[in-house]
Amino acid sequence: MDLKNVASLSFFLPEIILSATILVLMVLDLISQEKRGLALIAIGGCAATLIATLDLYYAPAGWLFHRMMVLDSFSLFFKVVTMAATILCIWMALGSNEIRRVHQGEFYALLLICALGMFFMASSSNLLMAYLSLELVSLMSYVLTGFLPRSRRSSEAALKYLIYGGVASGTMIYGMSWVFGMTGSLEYAAIQAALGEKGYNSAAMFMAFIFIMAGFGYKIVFVPFHMWSPDVYQGAPTPFTAFLSVASNAAGMAIMIRFFFPGVSRMLPGGDWAILTGVEWPHVLLLLSMITMTVGNLCALNQRNVKRMLAYSGIAHAGYMMMGLAILNNEGLSAVLFYVIVYLIMNLGAFLVVGMIANVTGDEDIENYRGLAWRGAVVPAVCLAVFLFSLTGLPPFAGFIGKFFLFSAVIKQGGAFAVLAVVAALNSVVSLYYYAKIVKTMFLDAPRVEDKTMAVAVNDFTLLLPLAVLTVVFGLYFAPLVTYTSRSLGFFVK
Amino acid sequence: MDNILTYMTFIPLAGAVVVLFLPNNAKLIRWFSAAATVPPLIMAIWLFTYFDRSKAGFQFVEDYYWIPTFNISYIMGVDGVSISMVLLTALLCFICIFASFGIEKAVKGYFALFLMLDTGMMGVFCALDFFLFYIFWEVMLLPMYFLIGIWGGPRREYAAIKFFLYTLFGSVLMLLAILALYFTVEPHTFDMRAMMRFADNYGTQALPIWPFNLWGWGFQHVIWMALFIGFAIKIPAFPFHTWLPDAHVEAPTAISVILAGVLLKMGTYGILRTNFPMLPVATADLAYWFLGALGAWNIIYGALCAMAQKDLKKLVAYSSVSHMGYVMLGMASFTTQGINGAVLQMFNHGTITGMLFLLVGVVYDRAHHREIEGFGGVASIMPVYTGMTALAFFASMGLPGLSGFISEVLVLLGVWQKYPVLTILGASGVVLTAGYLLWTIQRVYLGPPNEKYLKMPEINGREMFTLVPLGAIVVLVGIYPQVVLDLLRASLDQLNQVIVPHLKS
Which of residues 263-322 of B touch A (CB under 8 A)? Predict the structure, then answer.
């Protein structure tokens, strides 16, 4: 289906609910003194949005708003992921001392605007829409990064983020203008049709793709567009860092897959994709993927600040996920989507514990983790160990299954891709070193005399235990999740 | 007894979960954990009794769907090789619980992790689905890391992470090899039995990529090598052995026993279970250098290193490197004697080295050090203890009448028919072994007693309880090796028949 503006509205219910929640939150923030209530309203709004999103699975796929957006199972998948991440992060923020000291109401409202932007990113099927949604997310991210008024780090991070973001999105829109100039259209469907018909200067098209990749790469955080991430992760309030690491990464993946797969490639029967115009962008991704995971892991090795270490680990994970794109088939994409879910669970879990510890000790220095398990915080320590080993990719945790599918998709392609698989596998070994360093500090080191005992809030437990349990359960029984991700590849092209 | 293997594998895990919820009473936790290792031991003995020794295939097979979309199944089953290992694992786990009664720090955590480790090890020896096998293989790492890292000696952090990194390095290569096999087998499956049936169809023509074309290596050879590195790290084969002295020395006594007794066997077991039957052509091509020659080198290198050690535990650790060399050497011969001797050596090494580590633990608990030069004349202070030690040392040395002799002789007999040079090298290892063990006996147990240790109490009942079963097995197998060899023969003959046709004389 191809709907006009008004007709599209009935398929736009999740976004409408989300927008309404944002407006309500802003107004109530002026009136209400009880700021925690606002969080509950935000969660309620998100839950309603999630339900409306799930309801759209019954709707037919098609274009909305004059082909600006597309409704298909792929966009719905990323909307569900975004909403899940948002709800979890708001829950996390409820227990965070950092957020409690600042304007809570605005925090939730801005977070929801960010999520709204990600909804648009997931469903944009037009370069202009893609750019606008990406900018919406970026702008909110700058504000939320600099949300701690007394913190110099937070302000510095926001400024760095803004400058890098400006350069990246400028580069991206320049590349988009090349694509527009050559194909005469901003719509993915029209671009694809045009690319299929006549020959283009493949060098020019290649440059255009590289420019566009800069914008996506900055969202997904791959090398060489990664420089902002360690500072931003460290400076931003922890619940938002968690949100950034999973939701922003996922939305970046969504927009990138949408552009590079249904946008400028053609699907063949059997689940393989053919590149159009002879522009070998998968090779670029292949190379970037190897560089990204290696740089991320090597830089993480010597970090003393856990949030900063997780930032580099996030870069490495972006590299792993890109493996699934470089091989140009649906199995790879399905593995990426699977990894997105798994990464959401384990990374949010890790940040949750980091936030809990920072609540007691004030910062994220690894010294504060010394002997954590022997200081009355056995459960958070064990959970963090589960999340970290899952991030390493050890069974029986979900992270292993995620990597397993990525590796298996790559190995199946064979040939030169075997090298990619070997590089990725060796990278997992490297990553074990720094993840295990945190585990070592928590369990193997004896606590110092001056270290405080940790008291854990009930609120955090309600989130922590389910995440840890899910990490184990998806490591042992993942069939439903695989079915869901492989069904989420229904791209609507025409 | 349906699903006996599943019960045997998962009862310890259930025990571990229960341990976590027990009240913080050390005595209760210890005895409960000991009880949790009894059912697997009984089941292992039951399996040993009812195992049909005339059949070569897998018995007590369980086959259930797990993730049908990817043909991942839950398949358990044992043949002669695995059943001997299962028996060894069940016995050593039971004994090591008692050897751990001295643990005072975080008792609950220790025993819960120990029981999880038990499940992982049992699973590795029973799993017949490669995915399941890999899960068990990796699951074992986590408890091991913590057991060495939290309850180990002074350099425990270094030893634990080194062990972890080495093993993970091997296992990621193994994972890639497993995936490559999976996509080659038609229809795609992780079922090891199907992979074995497919054995003749894995590519053998040389790959067009340097340096594989130079060596004439095909797909099969590359996969063989990837699997081999994963297993060789566990054996540990030179040059991947350096984690072993560190891990053994730093680990608490019971964990050293498990490491040497069970974990090292996983390496050779894995090669017998996967490399041999699945990749026979590559096995025939590569076995001489990577199993035979490397095994002989392991024997001599390990023995020479052991001779140079000042620490009693490190000496035992290097003697393991040396003794596992016999296993590799015997496997490479593809003769009935050689390969039977190799697997028997796996079993014997488990019991003998188990004893040795327990004995070192006994003296360490009393003197709080393990310097060989720091003792002297222990025989006159602790005569019973010295008697047990002598039994273990002579078994390790290969004295006729004790179990080590049988397996070493079988290995050397088997290898002599194929590689006389390697046999001579391997046999010279026997002399070196006798050298370092006798020298140790002389320095530690004989001579005038050290003044400091005159008051050392004699070995106690609990310690004897851990040693006597192992000692009995050492003597029994030494006199009547058929108890174990009967189990192995049919399975190993079949294995040999797969490979022998591919050997280039």
Answer: none
* Residue B46 Rama label (left phi>0; alpha psi -120 to 50; beta): alpha
Spatial separation of the C-alpha atoms in residues B394 and B433, rounded to whole Å? 10
Verify whether the Cβ–Cβ distance B183 to A443 is below 8 Å: no
Q: Concatenated DSSP letters for A363-409?
A: S-BGGGGTTGGGTT-HHHHHHHHHHHHHHHT-TTSHHHHHHHHHHHH
Phi, psi at residue B370, to the nearest 5°?
-130, 20
Whether the CB of A491 is below 8 Å from some CB of chain B: the reply is no
How far is residue A34's CA from residue A94's CA, in Å, rounded to a whole number? 12
Distance CA B314, CA B316 (A): 5
Asked if residue A452 has pLDDT above 80, the reply is no
CB A432, CB A392: distance < 8 Å: yes
Nearest-Cα distance to chain A for B433, in Å, is: 36
CA dihedral A451, A452, A456, A460 (to 10 degrees): -60
Query: Can you tell me the distance from the alpha carbon of B451 to that of A370, in angstroms, rounded to the nearest whole number?
Result: 42
Contact present, B232 and B240 (Cβ < 8 Å): yes
Q: Does residue A108 sit within a domain?
A: no
Per-position b or e across B252-263, b if 16+ CB within 10 A of its CB: bbbbbbbbbbbb
Which residue in B69, B157, B172 is closest to A482 by CB distance? B69
Give the structural domain span for B446: 288-505
Q: pLDDT tens for residues B415-436? A: 999 899 999 999 998 999 999 9
Same domain, B246 and B391: no
CA separation for the pair A211, A172 (Å, rounded): 5
Question: Two tokens at A186?
Answer: 């901003």
pLDDT tens digits, one per residue of A206-222:
899 999 999 999 999 98
Please state the domain count of chain A.
1
Residues 367-396 of A with CB under 8 A from B: 374, 389, 394-396
Of B67, B161, B179, the CB nearest to A440: B161
Please give, rounded to a whole number of angstroms, the shortest distance from the CA of B186 to a CA of chain A: 13
A489 assigned to some structural domain: yes
Within-domain flag for A242: no
Decide if B141 touches A, using CB distance below 8 A.
Answer: yes
pTM (whole model) above 0.90 = yes
Q: Does A10 touch chain B (CB under 8 A)?
A: no
Percent of chain B at pLDDT > 90 equals 58
Q: Following DSSP, what letter does each residue of A438-470 receive, concatenated?
A: HHIIIIISPPPTTPPPP---HHHHHHHHHHHHH
> Is A483 touching B (CB cutoff 8 A)?
yes
The number of distinct structural domains making up chain B is 2
Do B164 and A422 lie within an 8 Å CB cutoff?
A: no
Residues B488 and B386 occupy one common structural domain: yes
Compute the radius of gyration of chain B from its Cα atoms. Answer: 22
**B180 close to A (CB below 8 A):** yes
H/E run at residue A70: strand A69-71
**Shortest CA gap A391–chain B (Å):** 14
Instruction: Establish if B166 touches chain A: CB-CB under 8 angstroms.
Output: no
Phi-psi region of B436 (alpha: psi -120 to 50; beta: other; left: phi over 0): alpha
